[in-house]
Q: What sequence folds into this?
């Protein structure tokens, strides 16, 4: 497998994206269930990728470090981060997902040519907005209001209300160490912190994917790789769980199933 100009000695069977299997808990938490039509095509594609690479990332996290883990681990984690966020964008803003899926199915679509409407980390996940920009203003031009995953308006409409609903629900459950991180979430700070952490992880993992180091002193070691993989899982798990408490989110799980998926992930990634 070649990534960023590097050939990884990876057993192809270890990341099988072609054979359908029931979603694992990570894919289910991020992509949801019971989707239909074009949305199902898009979410199933994302789920297949998330499942294959998250399964491999868990193995890298649990086992002794190897050259394959050092080389391929950052790529697996970045796929989980990017595709997990893409699935969340699609479930919260279905038009974005439907348009991309339909456009890429058109005969004029050229995989080798950059489309202006392509999904992009900067713009679809990280908003292009000023920190001091007011949430409401008569001067806002609707097409220029960011609909990025971590935008102010997504936080206002989706994340904060969902976090409060999720915390209310979790407070009714029996105390569980697997939910300790969840109960400590501050809805007023969560998305700002998630945006900063996701940007940091994206930058770190990209260096592992694109081989940006020109000195061996900076090469990733076991602690760095495993920490980045773990932090990626925790970030997308918290976002994924919260997404199922957004009233308008597509393909949402019921609260019992969503919490069950989250706890299953935390058993694998303590």
A:
């Amino acid at each position: 497998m070649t990534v960023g100009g590097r050939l990884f000695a990876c057993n192809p069977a270890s990341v099988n994206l072609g054979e359908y299997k029931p979603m694992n808990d990570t894919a289910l938490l991020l992509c949801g269930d019971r989707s239909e039509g074009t949305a199902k095509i898009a979410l199933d594609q994302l789920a297949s990728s998330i499942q294959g690479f998250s399964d491999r990332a868990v193995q890298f996290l649990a086992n002794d470090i190897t050259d394959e883990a050092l080389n391929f681990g950052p790529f697996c984690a970045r796929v989980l981060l990017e595709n997990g966020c893409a699935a969340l964008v699609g479930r919260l803003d279905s038009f974005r997902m439907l348009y991309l899926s339909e456009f890429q199915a058109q005969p004029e679509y050229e995989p080798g040519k950059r489309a202006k409407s392509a999904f992009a980390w900067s713009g679809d996940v990280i908003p292009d907005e000023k920190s001091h920009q007011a949430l409401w203003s008569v001067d806002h031009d609707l097409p220029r209001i960011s609909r990025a995953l971590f935008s102010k308006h997504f936080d206002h409409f989706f994340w904060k209300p969902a976090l409060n609903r999720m915390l209310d629900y979790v407070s009714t459950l029996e105390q569980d160490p697997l939910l300790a991180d969840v109960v400590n979430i501050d809805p007023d700070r969560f998305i700002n912190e998630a945006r900063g952490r996701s940007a940091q992880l994206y930058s770190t993992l990209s260096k592992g994917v694109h081989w940006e180091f020109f000195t061996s002193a900076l090469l990733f070691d076991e602690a760095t790789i495993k920490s980045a993989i773990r932090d990626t899982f925790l970030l997308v798990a918290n976002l994924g769980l919260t997404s199922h408490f957004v009233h308008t989110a597509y393909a949402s799980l019921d609260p019992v199933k969503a919490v069950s998926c989250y706890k299953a992930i935390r058993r694998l990634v303590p």
Summary: The radius of gyration is 19 Å.
